[in-house]
Write a structure and sequence with these properties.
With 338 residues, the chain is α/β, with parallel strands linked by helices. The protein has eleven helices and 13 strands.
């Protein structure tokens, strides 16, 4: 029970970096001595110290590490990257026991950090709150093992499945509270994907607004997929605002090609697909959606655009579904069963 309690504390630390560490995972760590947390740490940004190093640096006295237990949500690294191996620092500090949430999925060194620690005489326990630790970094896990980012399908829709209202009724389906919550989704994503039709119709900014921009977080890449021959409007916000360098346009490329290039060239680990219906339909048809977040307004509007086009999403089943009322709207969230 103590291991679960302290791993929960490490997870709370990891959440502080959620959405800010890409392409690295968000990791949290606590150091415990005689049943009490004496230091905490979390990974703040790629290239910065890892959570274990932050926790060791936070000790009131370095000698307190000797004989202590270190809890970390992800297996400590054992290779030299932009930062030195965490396993060496743990061994040098004299940590007696290491409790790990989940093994690093990187094919090149999965399990090697645990092996190094055991070889150094450290007691290692693995798998405490494993599911929660893996879920936190689900985007990183997919990207590091497949090269393709995690895809979240997001839409605001009416009860009759429409994402547009009839002319004269205004632009928005959902209320301000739901739209603010959707900006939190953007704040956790590396890229936002739309189709050329959405760009022409709405001229969206696709920036993080209405919520604080997390520390060390850049505005997400704005990605436009255009499959037709019509030119895109050169005066659109995403081509002219202060974030215009964060805009990417793909002409006549398939969705799998776009996603793999985003993952490979730009180290994008997560994509928020905001539509419209043709883009979402194509993603569902190609089995590229990993997660769904739909905001349903209490309206029957009969608009012309459906939320999901293509063959339809009847073949898609969601697991771990959650329903939450946000203002007047209902948010449906779930993971796509593969």
């Amino acid at each position: 029970m103590q291991d679960i309690r302290f791993m929960r504390a490490a997870l709370r630390e990891a959440l502080k970096g959620h959405g800010c560490t890409s392409p690295n995972p968000a990791v949290g760590c606590v150091i415990v001595r005689r049943g009490r947390i004496i230091a905490r740490g979390w990974h703040r940004k790629a290239g910065g110290p890892h959570a274990e190093i932050e926790a060791l640096k936070a000790l009131p006295n370095p000698s307190l590490a000797k004989g202590a237990t270190l809890y970390v949500t992800l297996e400590p690294c054992c290779t030299q990257g932009r930062t030195p191996p965490c396993t060496e620092a743990i061994l040098a500090a004299g940590i007696r026991r290491v409790v790990v949430g989940v093994v690093d999925p990187h094919p090149a060194h999965a399990g090697l950090g645990l092996e190094k620690l055991r070889e150094g005489g450290v007691e290692v326990v693995v798998g405490v709150l494993q599911e929660a630790c893996a879920h936190l970094n689900r985007a990183f896990f997919k990207w590091i093992t497949t090269g393709c980012p995690w895809v979240v399908a997001k839409a605001g829709l009416s009860l009759d499945g429409r994402i547009t209202r009839p002319p004269g009724e205004g632009q928005w389906l959902t209320g301000q509270a739901a739209r603010q919550d959707a900006h939190r989704l953007r704040a956790a994503a590396d890229a936002v994907l739309i189709g050329a039709g959405t760009l022409r119709a709405d001229d969206p900014s696709l920036t993080i607004r209405d919520v604080p921009l997390p520390e060390h977080k850049a505005q997400p890449w704005r990605v436009v997929l255009s499959r037709g021959g019509e030119p895109l409007p050169p005066d659109a916000k995403i081509f002219t605002d202060i974030h215009k360098e964060r805009t990417l346009v793909y002409l006549n490329k398939s969705l799998p090609e776009v996603l793999h290039e985003l993952g490979d060239t730009y180290q994008v680990t997560s994509v928020l697909a905001e539509g419209g219906g043709e883009i979402l339909g194509g993603l569902f048809d190609a089995n590229l959606v990993d997660e769904v977040c739909f905001y349903m307004a209490p309206l029957l509007c009969g608009g012309s655009q459906v939320a999901v086009g293509g063959l339809g999403a009847g073949r898609v089943e969601l697991i771990n579904t959650q329903y939450r009322r946000i203002g007047r709207d209902l948010r449906l969230h779930g993971i796509v069963r593969k």
